[in-house]
């Protein structure tokens, strides 16, 4: 969209028909958009916001990928999960003595269910 339709070469009847088609297409698109945004909202509610945001590396530079809280020097320092390589905060990470590495809560759960 965004392109203007040139209706000057059309008869009134044709122009009206084109407009009808465009309008129908537009309302369909709008419905689809509404549906998508509703779906997105539902995803957000399920806590997948972080997964979507994680695709934006900049976000993870400054915020924990798991709880979205911003990193602050010393108080909430940034550490990297050994498994998923995302930056995570203090409360979302736990130290794995065996691996001598930090791992995020999600990966910890995953590895726990794997070993079972
Ligand atoms: Zn966190
Ligand atoms: Zn992880």
UniProtKB/TrEMBL annotation:
It comes from Cairina moschata. SUPFAM superfamilies: FYVE/PHD zinc finger. Residues 4-106 form the RabBD domain. The keyword Ribosomal protein does not apply. CDD domains: FYVE_SlaC2-c. InterPro entries: FYVE_2 (IPR041282), Intracell_Transport_Effector (IPR051745), Rab_BD (IPR010911), Znf_FYVE_PHD (IPR011011), Znf_RING/FYVE/PHD (IPR013083). Signal peptide: none annotated. Pfam families: FYVE_2. This is RabBD domain-containing protein. GO terms for molecular function: actin binding; myosin binding; small GTPase binding. One of its GO terms (biological process) is intracellular protein transport. GO terms for cellular component: cortical actin cytoskeleton; perinuclear region of cytoplasm. It is found in: Cytoplasm, Perinuclear region. The keyword Nucleus does not apply. It comes from the Eukaryota. Its main location: cytoplasm. Keywords: Coiled coil, Cytoplasm. Gene3D superfamilies: Zinc/RING finger domain, C3HC4 (zinc finger). Residues 29-56 form a coiled coil.
């Amino acid at each position: 969209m965004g392109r203007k339709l040139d209706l000057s070469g059309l008869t009134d009847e044709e122009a009206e028909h084109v407009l009808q088609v465009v309008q129908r297409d537009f309302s369909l698109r709008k419905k689809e958009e509404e549906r998508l945004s509703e779906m997105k909202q539902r995803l957000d509610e399920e806590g997948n916001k972080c997964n979507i945001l994680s695709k934006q590396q900049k976000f993870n530079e400054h915020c924990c990928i798991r709880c979205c809280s911003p990193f602050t020097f010393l108080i909430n320092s940034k550490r990297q999960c050994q498994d998923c390589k995302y930056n995570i905060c203090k409360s979302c990470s736990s130290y794995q003595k065996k691996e001598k590495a930090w791992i995020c809560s999600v990966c910890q759960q995953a590895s726990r269910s794997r070993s079972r």
